[in-house]
Amino acid sequence: MQLSNTADALHRQRMHYALLSTTLFLDVAVECEALTACISDKCYPVPLANDLYGTRVGKLFCDAHAPLISLLAVCRELSVDGTTENNYRTMNAHLQHQHSGLLSLLLPTLTYFLCTLKLASHWSQTKATQFLSSWSIGSFLLITQTDLKMLSDANRRLLYVAEPMLSRLHADLRSDAVSRQSVCMVENLFQKLHDSSAALQTQSSTLMRLFSLTCNQKAMEFFQTEMPIGKTWRRKWHSEMPMEKSLYIEQAMLELLHPVAMATSKLPMEAQITALSIGVVALCDAWTTFILKEKIRFSLQGATQLAIDFGYVRSWLAEMNVLDAEAVQSLQSLEVFRYLNAAVHLLLKQPNRRRKDPSSATDDISESSLLLSC
Questions:
Q1: Number of other residues whose CB lies within 10 A of the CB of residue 62
Q2: Residues facing 46 on adjacent strands
Q3: pLDDT of 93-132, one tens digit each?
Q4: Would you say residue 279 has pLDDT above 90?
């Protein structure tokens, strides 16, 4: 009976070894296709599972990972085989002679997965930076918000499936079934995979910070050239109160936020909120920074106009048909809007009395002091 169980186990492990060869061969074919696509792919959205979208290259890399994770699940079954310790020693000695067994499955699978993961990470970093530099926001967000997340999820699944096998190898080490050098090699691969998981998280965060800086820079350049200053905001006391938004802020939304909103149309809601929050905060920060830098002073009429302009940003978000109600509510609740409303509220409290010299401006208040006090 014991010999029969051992023979069955040996047969299963030979089948697993054949499966490894087939899987790696197929993965090499998929990765070659991914490498070819890396050169020419424009990173337009392609459909994935669960109504998600990513890039073609990102999908190919994930397609290459999936069979490896499945193969590791087979390795995991092998590592918890129900044979006795004596049977396992006999079986493992035979497998060592044939260069098969658990290590012959685990080492090449982890190595190949790590190489593919590093290649995908390098491609993501390079392409995302290029797309951000050319302001191709749609492709940039697909890589940072979908492709990198898929790679990170794949890495976590692999670690979940493979880590129990490390404990089995330690047990085999104590029973002299495997060499210490082999176990150290596996431990080293596991550590590198853990490091890669942390690096993917850092990579995504770093790219989104770069996105924020780029949005802020573009917004600063816009306000420096398009936002009016001087007498526009210091109208006489007898001027009519403004009722409509300024042309400059309508143009700002069209040039700065509209491309970001359109680029999020293929993203899940959480990613939409993340990207648009960065864009909105960057725009508002650049706006207030410009006002402070220019030391703009506002009459009551000017403060009213600014309040209308600030309010237009929130209403514009509600009109975007690519966002659902929950995303709009989340964006309209950003802290930056409370900050802007507080500044406008103080501006509108300024005294509104007629001066003796009708040629002079009405009482006005420096926006710089108000913004700094909020």
A1: 21
A2: 54
A3: 444 443 345 677 778 888 888 888 888 898 999 999 999 9
A4: yes
User: Would you say how long the chain is, in residues?
Assistant: 374
How far apart are the C-alpha atoms of 314 and 237, rounded to whole Å?
28
**CA-closest candidate to residue 172, choices 236, 106, 231:** 106
Residue found by looking up tokens 């220019």 in the block = 294
Those residues whose C-beta lies under 8 Å from the C-beta of residue 49, and which sit 6 or more positions away, are: none
Q: 179-194: b or e for each residue (b if 16 or more CB lie within 10 Å)? A: eeebbebbeebbebbe
Strands of the chain (E only): list them: 46-47, 53-54, 297-298, 365-366
DSSP one-letter string for 25-52 = HHHHHHHHHHHHHHHH-----EE-GGG-
d(CA 68, CA 17): 13
311-337 burial, b at 16+ Cβ within 10 Å, e below that, comes to bbbbebbeebeebeeebbebbeebebb
Q: What is the DSSP string of 139-168?
A: HHHHIIIIIHHHHHHHHHHHHHHHHHHHHH
The residue type of 71 is L
